[in-house]
Amino acid sequence: MKIGWSTEFVVLDGERPAAEQLARLKTAGKRWIVVLRPSFGYCYVFTASELVERMRRVGVARDPGATPPLAEVLDLHEQQSSTRVSDSAQLAPPDFSWRPDEDAPSARRFVEIGTNDEVVAVGGDDVTRERKTRAMPPQPPEPPSFSRPRPASIAPPQPVAAQVEDEGTLPVRYPSIEPAEALRAGARVTLVVDLLREAPAHSPNGPLELGPQSADWRTLALGVTLVSAAIDFEDGGRGQVTIRRNDSSIPLRLAGRVRDDVAAGSDVDVHAQFWNGTRCCGSALRTLVVGAKFAQVAKERLQGEVQPDLTARAPDLTLFITLFDRAAPGRMHWRMITEPFDGLPPQLDAVIDLGKDPAAEAAAMFKQFANLERGKHRARIEGFGERLWERAPAQFHAVYWALHDHHRRPLAIQFVSDDPHLPWELMRPHRDGETHPPLALRHAVARWIGRWQGYMRNRLEAGQVVAIAPRYRSASARLSLAELSAQQLVSTLDAKSVNGTLAAMRALLESPPEEPVALLFFTGHGVFDAGAAAASAIKLEDGTLSVDEVARREVRLGERHGTVVFFNACEVGATGDALGAVGGWADAFLSRRFRAFIAPLWAIDEEDAAQVTQELMTRIVAERVPVGEALRDLRAKHGDVSPTYFSYLLYGDVTARISAPT
Description:
Layout: E1 2-6, E2 9-13, H1 18-22, H2 25-28, E3 32-37, E4 42-47, H3 48-58, H4 70-73, E5 83-85, E6 110-113, E7 119-124, E8 131-135, E9 172-179, E10 188-196, E11 208-209, E12 219-227, E13 231-233, E14 238-244, E15 252-258, E16 267-276, E17 279-289, H5 294-297, E18 302-306, E19 317-323, E20 331-337, E21 349-353, H6 358-370, H7 378-391, H8 394-407, E22 412-417, E23 430-431, E24 434-435, H9 439-442, E25 444-449, E26 459-460, E27 464-468, H10 480-493, E28 496-498, H11 502-510, E29 517-524, E30 526-527, E31 537-540, E32 543-546, H12 547-550, H13 557-561, E33 564-569, E34 575-578, E35 581-584, H14 585-591, E36 596-600, H15 606-622, H16 627-638, E37 648-651, E38 657-658
Helix pairs in contact: 10-15, 15-16
């Protein structure tokens, strides 16, 4: 095959209005046309007749008053792009392995790019003018054929002249969410979701660790879901990104429609979640501006992290609860992720609007639960659970009963939620002729805070247990049973006792020992402020330690050892709205990469708390039972005794357990 080259071409901007750009063809008088998409770096080489034919074939009906960009009118995607080269003397054959069915003539052609990123020449086997032809290198053997979702979403790899350094078993990627065109109210929009080898200009994040892979790994496929209050996505907002070793990823290209009531100039948040089966392994948030030009897109913000763990046991169901607007905390999007099976309902997501801020209701209910009479508390808590169930979307009801009927066993349910107030774990499912106990008593349940998804880990490291029980000076503050609980951990689990002083606590958190710390246990007084969760604190012998202090970058214990934290103190498990984001102890510890946090939602009984300490610590440390299962068994065993046993909440991976010592 001979490749010819020509400098007789005209360049059109695919991101400018089509009518404006096509008008230039009347006076250009060039055989070759190069359509550019500057935001993506894609080039498409056509003849004038091919361009007209493509417009005729696309034939999309449009609003006569609209001025769509040329790339949209031509329906140009990555798989039609021409191959870019920096030196026409060093050609590689066009790669059709990622676009086997593409027949657009532009896909067979080349574009030579100069040092200033300008088009220098166009090339192809049908380009014969002006420049000397060169022999095309032999075409490599066809790769094995296998199914990939949405071939149109695949970005072409750049020709590689030299051997690429192997990235090995610890690949890193950066999340990217790119609009293919400017957002306009009522208009169609396509978003490209990718995990890039290099950081995009608009991402403030560092590299995303994808976890250790096998020595011979070649691809890693992650499911993707997109959610936005302003865009209705096709295909349920679902798709897939495939990471390739030493190569660009195969991105997801997902279309949707911007809602009619979205105002020009307003911000649109797009949430992307990445999934390994039913396990949520990361997220990204992109804020786009309605009507912004492509040059402005790079200034908009993106945040997120991805951490798939291919060895982790997956939950049966992951519930992703997203708040669209902090000013309307009762409006939530629910998305259910589970392995497909016959019997699932067709729709696995829904939007609910509780109509009011749930914070005050939840706080008042927790205070009532703390004061319920022992042995007579369960009916009240179950009644609250039934109200929660009725507020959950009907689609969740259908998914829950489908899972129950399919598996007929206790489930592992993972919540990943932006909602800081409602304990959905206490929902009490019911249908005609059948009522279940609250989820937390029948199933292993856990939650994670949405913005820290990339930090969630299934592996809890083995190591030392550290117990802290402050000796308060005042008799009224002294908790003798709390101190006894800590002493029992020393004798039964070989825990290390640490003084309950502010200096000792800070030293442990900020200057962790070399030896792994598997679990930090604190028993004592805690104070939660629902109005300002960041001001919540635990009481030590000589002062208090607040949420804000734990959230500081100086706290390194979680980063070093992934320590589990168990606070057996009143109300420290609660979260609240602080500084426009989820606040409270859970948020502080998760932000500093602690891998699990266990605490009660409301004031607890001292004797019951001691019982919880003894049984729960034995199960998760000595017997290495998954934390979610151990808490479920504890609630089921003692739930009739006291409301204390209902109060404990787990922030962590629902199937995680402490590793065996090596």
